Amino acid sequence: MAKNLVIVESPAKGKTIEKFLGKDYRVEASFGHIRDLPKKNMGVDIAAGFLPEYEISPDKKKRVAELKKLAKAAEKVWIATDEDREGEAIGWHLCQALGLDDQAVDRIVFHEITKTAIEKAIESPRKIFIDLVNAQQSRRILDRIVGYEVSPVLWKKVQPGLSAGRVQSVAVKLLVEREREIRAFVPEESWKIVANLAHQIPFSVELTKVDGKKIAFKNFQDIQDFCQKHGIPEEIQTTKDKKGNLHFSLVHSENFVLEKTEKKSSKRLPGAPFTTSTLQQEASRKLGYGVKTTMDIAQRLYQNGHITYMRTDSVNLSDLAINTARTFIEKEFGTEYSMPNGRRFKTKQASAQEAHEAIRPTYIEKTPDSIGLDGMELRLYKLIWERTVASQMKEADVETTTYHFSPENFDENWIAKGEVIKFPGFMKLYIEATDDENEESESKKLPEISDGSMLQSENFSGQQKFSLPPPRYTEASLVKKLESEGIGRPSTYAPTIQTIQDRGYVVLESKKLVPLDIAFVVTDYLEKEFSQMMQYSFTAEVEGQFDEIAHGKLGWQKMLGDFYNPFHEAVNEAMGTEGKFSGERILGTDPATGRTVLTRMSRFGPVIQIGAPSELAEGEKPRYANLLSGMSIDDISLEESLGLFSFPKNLGNYEEKEVIVSQGRFGPYIKFDENYVSIPRGEDAHTIELDRAIELIEEKRRADAPVGEYNGEPYTKGKGRFGPYLKWKNLYVSIPKNFDPETISSEDAEKLIAAKIEKESNRYIHQWEDEKISVENGRYGPFIKFGKKNFYLRRDGEKITDLEVIKKLTLDDVKNIILEQDKNAFGKPKKSSKK
Predict the structure, then answer these.
(1) For residue 721, what pLDDT is reported?
(2) Which residues pair with 525 in a beta bridge?
């Protein structure tokens, strides 16, 4: 038996550490948190000073018992959980659960998993910092109180099943405000005109001033007037680009004189090494990773000793890392690319923990192509490695040239801008991406021309533009916004963004976060009843108070008391108000009936309603219509809403069967002979006619027609929300990107189907199709699937891992396991009637 027991959070990390420590040390994992507040109630005794009522998680009881036994047998126990507040709290909970004195046990921390770092940590242990524990504990308690007290208000006043959170509700508010900005935005038209000049290296100049004043063409008439002045015929032919904007190009020869040349030298500095938020942003921009994906991959890279700790708000690098980077740069790029004394960055956030390091490779000399990674892990490691090394390289020297041209016979200023990289510096390795989708690069190389030179234009061209609304947030840009507002911390960004999607407030469309109607209604209600909680400054202030607790400057119970009293008063006031909040908006009057047309959130989702309660006869119900995809109760017009009541509409007959256009939960569709055909996005279902409906029906028939056979059964080809697929019986088979769906051979199609069948056969341990229940093999072990819900394989709180035991489970056994986790899974039990 090893003398020393080291407890870490994850087994992957444990295996790596055990290799460094030798036979006298046994490294075991807690598998994350072992204790938490109970799920069945708030678990906070407010009257007793906000004392938490922790309990060991049911799926961790066996693990705790094992660790307790190992701790008792060991001569010394070391707590080696992660170095942030969450890790400190896990370490404290371990001491409590294992019966260890948290001020006697040795706590070790390290921000990289290397032999040197681990040995150094063992040589200089410390005690658990109770202030850090209290900071995490106060956050957990405060968030529990907000969730448990505000959510019931939403259930009563808005809609059952809704949730609220101190950070999540404010994050949703950011998205709702941005969406309203977009909807309220009125685009402004403008035009730009350029002349393309003849030269060995052709280039263009853009008109900026006329008669010494800045020029702004607001419409096409302005362009025509300008062209007439330059002797161009009145008739200018325009064409449309893919975005629908007009543009033109016409042959026109005119002399242009170079009046002035401006040259400006500047230096471009590399970005700082990654913090959690900047890694999430750059991985999104450059690699297309969501924030959760980025953090999951970074966690694995850290646990396997490839990078330093991935939850940090510091941009510091250690002296060793800076020196190692300098040695590597001098060897690979030359001394002219290195910084003799290194480059140190200053963290902008006041709350940042400077003792921590930025995210960097543990061994900078291990280049991406030498480390033995592949796939997504390799791409993220390469990003971190390049950013770290580039941060220690010389700045780039850039020369910007601006030419000022004037036509021979007019007082006008036409300019051309270009830049030349005189010395690439860090740009030889790394160039930072940008969030601005509409940014136009002016980076181009211009020919050398002397002042006074005359060049001739070959043609004039013009481009119509419209000002653009602010873009919707991506996951990465929302992280940036949360950070700039001081909302949340590195460890909370990814969970917050995941939560607002899981709770049905937001959907991810084309990598943009789009708030749903319920998000608008809930945000408006919370702003009305809990205005302080919904202020960005207040949320940031609370984060600052957590920091003060962590530094021992503020008592956690006092902080919670100061928050709770006014907050609880607001909860009571909200509960005491009459009626429900549905986000109701009066749109106008129905011309056919004279009744009120309104929109609101119903228990089944957003609806349009004709007939206010006061206008209806006794027992009469209003008329309802569901909104189509892309519509919102926040801005739908009276005309649009009345059009929804025209469904279902009979378009006529085809092949002696009715063709009906209607709308459903997922958008408008055509019903024909018990078949449903979706109407393509962007087409107006109100204006669709029989001929177009027949086209769509025939397109659907062609798409559904068999393209081959496998084992005597036909298979078809289609395209769904996740891409192209083959369908054989009830089996859907994705067509990989390396195949062209249009030309895929029958041989390749059959191979894909066979591979999917084999994969599916290994997927199920049990399957009861009629009950929609199955026991399946998953990435993290077997689990139960019932309908669309997943359940743990757990009985009486104990995880079932023995495959032979799992194979012997009956349908009734599995149903009972489901009921343990969700007593209403098969419907609420009927109340017995009173006799």
Answers:
(1) 64
(2) none
Tokens of 82: 């992660």
Q: pLDDT (tens digit, 9 = 90+) per residue, 473-525?
A: 999 999 999 999 999 888 889 999 999 998 999 999 888 999 999 999 999 99
Q: In angstroms, how far is CA 201 from the centroid of its own chain? A: 44
Q: What is the mean pLDDT of residues 176-187?
A: 95
716 within domain boundaries:
no
pLDDT at 792: 86
Average pLDDT, the chain: 90
pLDDT of residue 743: 86
**196: Cα separation from own chain's centroid:** 42
Residues 6+ apart with CB under 8 A from 369: none
How far apart CA 489 and CA 351 sit, in angstroms, is 9
Mapped onto helix, strand or coil, the DSSP state of residue 666 is coil
> Do both 821 and 802 map to the same domain?
yes
Across 68-75, average pLDDT? 93
- Of 595, 612, 645, which closes a domain? 645
Per the structure, the complete domain to which residue 507 belongs is given by 160-185+489-576
- pLDDT for the residue numbered 40: 86
Catalytic residue set: 309
- Please compute, for residue 772, the number of CA atoms within 13 A of its CA located in the half-sphere on the CB side: 7
Buried b (16+ CB within 10 A) or exposed e, 477-495: bbbbbbbebbbbbbbbbbb
742 inside domain = no
* Judgement on whether residues 252 and 300 belong to the same structural domain of the protein: no
CB atoms within 10 A of CB 3: 12
Q: Are 207 and 194 in contact (CB under 8 A)?
A: yes
Q: How far is CA 487 from each of CA 354, 539, 561, 819, rounded to the nearest angstrom? A: 19, 6, 21, 38
The answer to whether residue 835 scores a pLDDT higher than 50 is no
**What integer is the mean pLDDT of 48-62?**
92
- HSE-CB at 113 with a 13 A cutoff on CA atoms is 26
- Residue 34: which CATH number? 3.40.50.140
CA 129 to each of CA 107, 119, 289, 318: distance values in angstroms, whole numbers, following the listed order: 9, 21, 35, 23
Query: Of 235, 234, 232, which Cα lies nearest the Cα of 253?
Result: 232
Residue 766 lies in a domain: no
Same domain, 244 and 259: yes
Residue carrying the six token digits 């209604």: 521
783 secondary structure, DSSP code: E
Q: Which of these, 72, 73, 91, lies nearest to 81 by C-alpha position?
A: 91
Total residue count of the chain as it appears in this document: 835
> Does one domain contain both 435 and 370?
no
370 token code pair: 């030498």
Quick one: 254 and 203 in the same domain?
yes
Q: Which of 128, 148, 171 is the last residue of a domain?
A: 128
From the list 712, 713, 743, 747, the residue with the least C-alpha distance to 728 is: 713
pLDDT of the residue at 131: 96
> Looking at the structure, do residues 434 and 516 belong to the same domain, yes or no?
no
In a domain, 34, yes or no: yes
Lowest mean pLDDT among 65-69, 314-318, 665-669, 789-793: 665-669
More reliable by pLDDT, 429 or 738: 429
**Beta-bridge partners for 374:** none
Is 295 found in the same domain as 217? no
* Contacting residues for 58 by C-beta, under 8 A, at least 6 apart: 794, 797, 798
- 311 and 360 share a domain? yes
Number of domains in the chain: 7
Cα 690 to Cα 687: distance, rounded to the nearest angstrom = 10
